[in-house]
Amino acid sequence: MAKGEWGLPQWLERGVADLFPAGGDANAADQQLAARLAEAEREGRPLRIKLGIDPTGSDIHLGHSILFRKLRAFQDAGHTAVLIIGDFTARIGDPTGKSATRVQLSEAEVDANAATYLQQLGQGQDPARALLDFETPGRLEVRRNSEWLAALDLPKVIELLGISTVGQMLAKEDFANRYGSGTPISLHEFLYPLLQGYDSVAVQADLELGGTDQKFNVAMGRDLQRHFNQRTQFGMLLPILPGLDGVQKMSKSLGNTVGLAKDPLSMYSKLEKVPDAAVEEYLTLLTDLDLEALPANPRERQKAMALEVTRQRHGAAAAQQAQADAGKLVGGASGSGAADAEVPEASLAEVNFPAKAFYLLSAVGICASSSEARRQIQGGGVKLDGEKLSDPNQEFVAPAELEGKVLQLGKKTFRRLVAG
């Protein structure tokens, strides 16, 4: 099997941006991950691969899935994924990437979000289609860090605070920027990297996965393991996925995401329009496709990526149907392909008739607000069964006028209108 930059198999190195430590003696299991893996194989024990998630929202998108895909790769190789639900740390909020103190969540909010996260990751689902394998014995531990963090007494907290310095904390880019600009930093925010690092001690992690923005926190885990006389973990960092605009990171607040729960047609249609400059990253980070075996044509690579990512979530048949339906809906003249395309439905039951076009788009959930709907219609981005809607005030008298028709926003969002 071909080895990569760090002497690891390609399935493991694919998409990795940083691995540390990665120096010293190549045969030392504390310096080279390849040596740690070989040692574990000789001893017949799985490595413990840590990934922590703070359930600060309710949705997981494809940007988040990069880390879970790598965690699943370790599972499939026989190692133990230790998924830490940061129910305690979520109440503080990770300061990484933030220019102000985060709003602290309640315990009930965190618990509700955690339940939706696990469902989206595949709890209770067929492992063949789930992001993580919840079924195979020994492959997954789901832990909540309140198990150990809620029990910390003041002497232990003081001990943790004594491991790091103010200088080290202010070396963290986000803190440095805020301090330099005079933006307040609450003292409890300094606790976050220490508590996340203590998670590594609690679960005795061999390796921690994180995004490239998490290096400070992952390195803190190594420092704390060393302090508590544990073998130190490796840090494996993966890139931040660009959003559908191909420029900014995928983020719900920027409106450039693809949610894991998206229906096949919406998922495929959004991915098929990813800018050419970002397609290679999507192929590398979201699929296992052989990049050299794909057609050189950028459009074909784009379609192959969209099809494969949709297949992973919804199965081959649904992905192929989505691809065919997207072609009918976008390429069909005057809605000729809309009638037999499988399109997600939107109910008209809650719409108050007579209804103007701008109100209709917001009422069925295609646009977030009536003002956004007006802008989309005036910008020429809305069609009804293939015919462009040009007047935001166009009025529909009754549901019968719309029953069965496909409402389209841009080239990515389609909804078949139904009365019930």
Describe it for me?
The protein is α/β, with parallel strands linked by helices and 420 residues long. 40% of the residues lie in helices and 12% in strands. It has helices at residues 10-13, 33-43, 62-76, 107-121, 146-149, 154-161, 166-171, 173-181, 187-203, 215-227, 264-271, 276-286, 298-314, 316-331, 357-363, 370-378, and strands at 18-20, 48-53, 80-85, 140-144, 207-211, 234-238, 345-347, 355-356, 382-384, 387-388, 395-396, 406-409, 413-418. Strands 1-6-5-2-3-4 form a 6-stranded mixed sheet, with helices on both faces. The termini are far apart. The model has no long low-confidence stretch (mean pLDDT 88).
Globally, the shape reads globular
Q: Mean pLDDT score, rounded? A: 88
Helix content class: 40-55%
H/E series, N to C? Answer: HEHEHEHEHHHHHEHEHHHHEEHHEEEEE
State the end-to-end CA separation: 56 Å
Estimate what percentage of residues fall within beta strands. 5-15%
> Main beta sheet: strand number and arrangement?
6 strands, mixed
How do the strands line up in the largest sheet? 1-6-5-2-3-4
Describe the oligomeric state of these chains in a short phrase: single chain
Q: Total number of helical segments? A: 16
Cα-atom radius of gyration: 24 Å
Helix/strand/pairing category: alpha/beta
Q: What's the count of strands?
A: 13
Enumerate the spans where pLDDT stays under 50 for 5 or more consecutive residues: none
